[in-house]
Amino acid sequence: MAAAMDRPAPDVTRFAPSPNGHLHLGHAFSAIVAHDLAAARGGRFLLRIEDIDGPRSRPELAEEFRADLAWLGLAFEEVPAQSTRLAAYAAAAERLKARGLLYPCTCTRSEIAAAGALEGSEGLIYPGTCKRRPPDPARAAAWRLDAEKALAETGPLVWEDALAGPQAVDLAGLGDVVLVRKDLPASYHLAVTLDDAADGVTLVTRGADLFAATHVHRTLQALLGLPVPRWHHHPLLLDAQGEKLAKRRGSPALATRRAAGEDGAMLARQLRLQQLVLGT
Ligand code: GLU
Ligand code: ZN
After folding, report:
1. Would you say the CB of residue 210 lies under 6 angstroms from ligand 1?
2. Lowest-confidence region among 66-70, 164-168, 195-199, 246-250
3. C-alpha 252, offset from chain centre
4. Which ligand is nearest to the CA of 144?
5. Domain segments of the chain as ranges
6. pLDDT digits (tens, 9 = 90+) for 215-237
């Protein structure tokens, strides 16, 4: 009995692809890491389709993704796609607005660049134009998190990465990020934070390219009273030139390899060896 109590509870992990392109090797790697971290201790591995990327989203790819995971030999439980959760996102955004933590912003990308925005860890840091003077109500507005006010409410926060250790929340490198898009009731940051909480994810497993975004997610958890998971940001799989594998550089789609009759379980074994090399 004592031994059972000492053992940490099994983790719930997830793979959360956006259906705006085929899955490639980098995705397979990410899914394997998440699957294996859950499976190692009898946990659950979830698939969540992040299909709210407006016109870039191609819902028909969801079926392809399921087939890709099955081909790799990864058993998963699917949770509802983001497009079914828009009301929950809108409700959370309203709560934050009511507390004065969001402000409307009508800036276009070029206006932000023209305002002399600095490059941050996730693209340009918003220079605060619409925070200083309320924007024209006739223009469509996104809503940004007022990082200064958020920090004043939450105080110092930390989050735990399984590989990198404890991290102090620092929003300076991201600035006032968009939580409600002009065309949608949520941005990636708001949707993913609410979903991971709703799905009971205890170990958020994803690529190191999303490491900085976690500062925002941890802040939102504190503001919205959500449970705090741990994170596992795995190193990205690189190609022979040392560059991140990306669709646009011609990395073959898993679906193409699958259709060509390649053995998915064998590919998964090869990727697990990569995992040993990368130390994930
Ligand atoms: N949907 C995101 C993507 O495909 C991943 C989100 C996440 O893992 O937090 O890049
Ligand atoms: Zn603005």
Report:
1. yes
2. 246-250
3. 23
4. 2
5. 8-84+235-280, 86-191
6. 999 999 999 999 999 999 999 98
Measured CA to CA, the distance from residue 263 to residue 273 in angstroms comes to: 16
Look up the CATH superfamily of 8-84+235-280: HUPs (3.40.50.620)
**Could you tell me whether strands 12-15 and 44-47 are parallel, antiparallel, or unpaired per DSSP bridges?**
parallel
With a 6 A CB cut-off, is 17 part of the ligand 1 pocket? Answer: yes
Which ligand 1 atom is at minimum distance from the Cα of 192? Answer: 9
CATH 3.90.320.10 fits 86-191, yes or no: no
Cα separation, 112 vs 126, in Å, equals: 7
| Residue with CA at minimum distance from ligand 1 atom 6 | 16
Count of C-beta atoms within a 10 Å radius of residue 140: 10
Expressed in angstroms and rounded, the spacing between residue 6 Cα and the centre of ligand 1 is 33
